[in-house]
Amino acid sequence: MGFHIDTHNIPVLRDFAGASQHENRVTPIRGNGANAGKKPLTLSRRATHMTIRRERNVTSPLGNHGMAIMCQLYRTDCVIFYEDNSVTLATGGWETMSTRLFINAVMYRNCIDVGSAPKGSEGNVLYYPSTRKTFLWQDKVHLTPDRLPIDPEPCVVHRVNRRAMNEVRKLNAPFLQYARSMIKVAYPMGGILDQEEYQRRLKRYEWLDVDINSFPSSRCADTLCNIMREDYIEDWADALDACATVSMQTYHRWPVFSYSYRPDRILKVIDELLKYGYSDAVFTEVTLPLGEVKADSNEKYVR
User: Fold this and answer.
1) Domain around 126
2) In this predicted structure, what is the pLDDT of residue 4?
3) What is the pLDDT along the chain (303 residues), one digit of tens a residue?
4) Torsion sign, CA atoms 127, 131, 135, 141
5) In a domain, 49, yes or no
6) For the chain, what is the domain count?
7) Number of neighbouring beta carbons within 10 Å of residue 149
8) Are residues 138 and 231 in the same domain?
9) What is d(CA 165, CA 278) in angstroms, rounded to the nearest whole number?
10) Which of 61, 213, 257, 294 is the most buried (most CB within 10 A)?
11) What distance in Å separates the CA atoms of residue 190 and residue 158, rounded to the nearest whole number?
12) Claim to verify: residue 195 and residue 128 sit in the same structural domain
């Protein structure tokens, strides 16, 4: 589906009765064309990508049989009103702004807002402004007549086990002590590299699986964490220099790029590498209470 649709003329449908009444009023498109028989949901007869129709002998999420009113965007029945007043919301796998705009336009005044899931989670959220409760849902969610989700999906986040993280730092204490000492001497604030030297260094550390476009990552974490645990100063120097290089700040003074050391970032990068490398020990899964959804800022570390 596209990234934007015009929802201004979509009628607000509170429940099955309102949806049924609107569907009865809409005259099907005449003729023998591809759109013949369709009932546009909006006032515009050309908006055939948004339609409404009635189906009989449909089983509702509550297990009742009866009629249902389908509000369709392109080929997906995004909002379904059942005769027992339960509702189904669906994206059909199209997790786009258009899909959410369409659902929100139809469900407006049902005191629900559909949005994208926060960072670290997949799918969508249902937000209830009156209670400030939020529920996760993937491709499809069923709602009771009170518009609450049936079998709501809990939100799971990963939190740092501080004791375990301290143990990881102790395990790598010799390297961390070496890094703190060398950062002060070899990577002072304001140290500058030109673009040619910067690219040369990145090329030099390809054997460490360092990729500037995805650093740090689980791929390079295994290699670098193995070096941190060992006792070879030369390898330590290479690992530290790689971390210092990728954590540099970029300056663009057209047409020239230059790169400046950021000592404060180097230790943060090393800490992130440890989180990637020891994610099984460091992170704990926590299931939040139903109705509470938070961004999982640590999801990227978990493999």
Assistant:
1) 16-153
2) 64
3) 445 678 888 888 999 999 999 999 999 998 888 889 999 998 888 888 999 999 999 999 999 999 999 999 999 999 999 999 999 999 998 888 999 999 999 998 788 999 998 887 888 999 999 999 999 999 999 999 999 999 998 999 999 999 999 999 999 999 999 999 999 899 988 788 888 998 998 888 888 888 888 888 888 899 999 999 998 999 999 999 999 999 998 888 778 889 999 998 999 999 999 999 999 999 999 999 999 999 999 998 987
4) negative
5) yes
6) 2
7) 21
8) no
9) 9
10) 61
11) 36
12) no
Torsion of CA 233, 236, 241, 247, to 10 degrees: -150
For position 110, what pLDDT does the model report? Answer: 82
Backbone angles phi, psi at 80, to 5 degrees: -125, 125
Q: Of 223, 250, 248, which is closest to residue 238 (Cα–Cα)?
A: 223
**Quick one: 193 and 260 in the same domain?**
yes
C-alpha–C-alpha distance, residues 303 and 282, integer Å:
12
User: Do 50 and 127 lie in a common domain?
Assistant: yes
For residue 196, count CB atoms less than 10 angstroms from its CB and return exposed for 0-12, middle for 13-18, buried for 19 or more: exposed
In a domain, 1, yes or no: no
For residues 171 and 275, membership in a common domain is answered with: yes
Quick check: is 11 in a domain?
no
Sequence-ordered strand ranges (E) for 129-248: 133-137, 140-143, 156-160, 192-194
Evaluate whether residue 300 is within a structural domain.
Answer: no
Closest CA to 187 of 267, 252, 256, 251: 267
**Do 180 and 212 lie in a common domain?**
yes
Q: pTM for this structure?
A: 0.80
Of 130, 153, 176, which residue is a domain's last?
153
- Do 90 and 217 belong together in one domain? no
Residues 243, 168 share a domain: yes
